[in-house]
Amino acid sequence: MSPRTLLALNWKMNKTPGEARAWAQELGERYEPAQGVHLAVMAPAISLPALAANLPAGVAFGAQDVSAQESGAYTGEISAAMLVDVGARYAVVGHSERRDYHGETDAVVAAKARQAQAHGLTPIVCVGEKLDVRERGEHVSFTLTQLRGSLEGIGTDVVVAYEPVWAIGTGKTATAEDAEELAAAIRSLLSELYGEAASELCVLYGGSVKPDNIASICGKPNVNGALVGGASLKVADVLGMNDAL
Ligand code: PEP
Fold first, then answer.
1. Which residues form the active site (predicted)?
2. What is the pLDDT of residue 110?
3. Could you tell me the distance, in angstroms and rounded to a whole number, from the CA of residue 65 to the centre of ligand 1?
4. Theoretical Cys-Cys bridge with 161: which of 32, 98, 141, 227, CB 3.0 to 4.6 Å?
5. Ligand 1 site, CB within 6 A
6. β-strand partners of 137
7. Per-residue CA distances from 99 to 18, 170, 217, 233 (Å)
8. 3-class secondary structure per residue, 122-135
9. What is the secondary structure of 5-54 as a DSSP string?
10. Which residue(s) pair with 7 in the sheet?
């Protein structure tokens, strides 16, 4: 069985609860599920209840981060149990913006992913190289090393998103061949770690994905969908990507 296609949206720090409610209601009026495509919205934690109450049936949601801790004196953190309580199904971990601006290491990312899994959330583990690494031709080895560290102690209920940092929010998209090169390498590492289960796991591409490029990228054999930032904010773009898949 080939993996399903996951269209995962990352709103980043956009949309108040009121804006999230309006977005979800607009989606509900216009959304037609595409065969085999699973849609999931990663929203700011404070906007998750508005999504829970207003998203159309079959559309999942999740958080953009989760604490590595269970509970207690961790001011400002949001626990996996809290996310599950509002109905979240996913938690993004290790987004390059968290790695860069919050100093998250592979060990921290793995601890967050383990905590997500311990509560039944599927972690979406992000990895990917910066431009200088790609220019040195070290993008495959860099990304696989990062992934190995970020999956330490992680079971098979996991999604991996390959997001070359130079393509995030820049309008520069990797070619479908670039995406497939890394997705295939990631699949090999997943096979080494998880055996046959690797063929069932979703490997996503992220980095300036839009309605007009999603089909070619996700048409590659090892790319099972996309993690989308900028083009996730307007319902029309999301419907365009959903229809293109
Ligand atoms: C992201 O935030 O994960 C992302 C891929 O952003 P964008 O689609 O805007 O490049």
1. 95 (electrophile), 163 (proton acceptor)
2. 98
3. 15
4. 227
5. 10, 12, 163, 168-169, 206-209, 227-231
6. none
7. 29, 18, 25, 23
8. EEEEEECCCHHHHH
9. EEEEEE--S---HHHHHHHHHHHHHH--PPTTEEEEEEE-GGGHHHHHHH
10. 39, 226
Q: Please state, in angstroms and rounded to a whole number, the distance separating the CA atoms of residues 85 and 27.
A: 23
| Cβ-Cβ contacts under 8 Å for 165 (sequence gap 6 or more) | 96, 100, 128, 129, 130, 131
Q: Ligand 1, atom 7: nearest CA belongs to which residue?
A: 229
Q: State the alpha helices, DSSP H only, in 94-220.
A: 96-101, 106-118, 131-135, 139-150, 176-194, 214-218
Burial class, 12, CB count within 10 angstroms (exposed 0-12 / middle 13-18 / buried 19+): middle
Q: Helix, strand or coil for residue 189?
A: helix
Residue that has been written with the tokens 């290790």 in this structure: 94
Residue 160 has pLDDT above 80, yes or no: yes
Q: Which amino acid is at 201?
A: L
Q: Which domains does the chain have, with CATH numbers?
A: 5-244 (3.20.20.70)
Tally of CB atoms within 10 A around 117:
19
Three-state DSSP class for residue 101: helix
Mutation to probe ligand 1, out of 10, 100, 217 (largest number of atoms < 8 A from CB): 10
Model pLDDT, residue 197:
96
Q: How far is the CA of 41 from the centre of ligand 1 (A)?
A: 13
Q: How far is residue 83's CA from residue 202's CA, in Å, rounded to a whole number?
A: 22
